Amino acid sequence: DVSKIEEGKAGTLSFLANPKYEKYIYNTASSIVIVNEDFSPQKSVPATLIRVPNAYESFAALLRLYEQNKPKKSGVHKLASIAETAKVGKDTYVGEFAVVSDNVKLGKGVQLYPQVYVGDGVQIGEGSILHPGVKVYEGCVIGAQCVIHAGAIIGGDGFGFAANQENNYEKVPQLGKVILEDYVEIGANTTVDRSTMGATILRKGVKLDNLIMIGHNVEVGENTVIAAQSGISGSSKVGKNCMFGGQVGLIGHITIANGVKIAAQSGITKDIKEEGIVIQGSPAFEFGPYQRCYAVFRNLPKLLNQVNELEKKTGHL
């Protein structure tokens, strides 16, 4: 089995990657600990150490092997509903009360857990997993080896309304779709809206946390990761290999360059054109200047008191 290093038990394997957890390695009960090659213990370690180039990456690889060896569900439950026009691949699992609509195509080894809804004409690639309660609206395309967690909604209408002469809002029909390329993972209760026209696209390897909102006609580049409670407004384009912290917000119709890192709770109001930059704040700007500004901001009450004292002294003079 495996365990966290601070909760190690005999017969389990742990890892040490973050230096702040080093103190636990000297008394952990874990039998084996995976460490980085450059780890130099300060005193005796009771566990066997396995040195690797990247401890976290190696531990994650072991966990994937462990998960792959777990038995997978297969077969179609008698309480599932599959349309006659749907095409279901080999080794597919369809759980209780799942609905597979007309002209759906399910690839080999797809797993649809209970209460999943798959709308008309949806395509789901080989090995993809949809956890309980996932809803995929009509016409959407999900690639191979994708994972969509419970409660996520793929292909709901984008937020499109136009004011008429009476200042009432009339709905703009959302006629597009959502495309998830291969190896995309979507967190629980995350929503990805269908486009007005064309497609909302998450490129290969995109990873979205729980409780994220992706607006209509958004495009997210390859291997970009976005943490919980973030929101991307309609028609924005995010480059590849970007990293967003939690509660990041983007206004609509802007472009984010490749490799950009955005700190948590930042608000992005304009294009970010420089690749690989780190930004923070609302409105966001470069991380270094932001930190210096924040240091000044935290001292404003103290500076105000100093100014008031100076005013009193100059007043007496």
Highlighted features:
alpha/beta, 3 helices, 36 strands, 14% helix, flat
Radius of gyration: 25 Å
- Helix content percent band: 10-25%
> What share of residues are in beta strands?
25-35%
N- to C-terminal distance: 76 Å
Structural class: alpha/beta
Described by the principal axes of the CA atoms, the overall outline is flat
Query: Regions with pLDDT < 50 over 5+ consecutive residues?
Result: none
Largest beta-sheet characterization = 12 strands, mixed
Mean pLDDT: 95
Record field, number of beta strands: 36
Tell me the number of helical segments per DSSP (H or I, 4 or more residues long): 3
Strand order of the largest sheet: 4-7-10-13-16-21-24-27-30-33-35-36
Give an overview in words:
By secondary structure, the protein is α/β, with parallel strands linked by helices. It is built from three helices and 36 strands. It has helices spanning 55-68, 287-298, 300-316; strands at residues 13-16, 32-36, 48-52, 75-76, 81-82, 87-88, 93-94, 99-100, 105-106, 111-112, 117-118, 123-124, 129-130, 135-136, 141-142, 147-148, 153-156, 161-163, 169-171, 177-180, 185-186, 191-193, 199-202, 207-208, 213-214, 219-220, 225-226, 231-232, 237-238, 243-244, 249-250, 255-256, 261-262, 267-268, 278-281, 284-286. Strands 4-7-10-13-16-21-24-27-30-33-35-36 form a twelve-stranded mixed sheet. The chain has a ten-stranded parallel sheet with strand order 5-8-11-14-17-22-25-28-31-34, with no helix packed on it. Strands 6-9-12-15-20-23-26-29-32 form a nine-stranded parallel sheet, with no helix packed on it. The N and C termini lie far apart (76 Å). The mean pLDDT is 95.
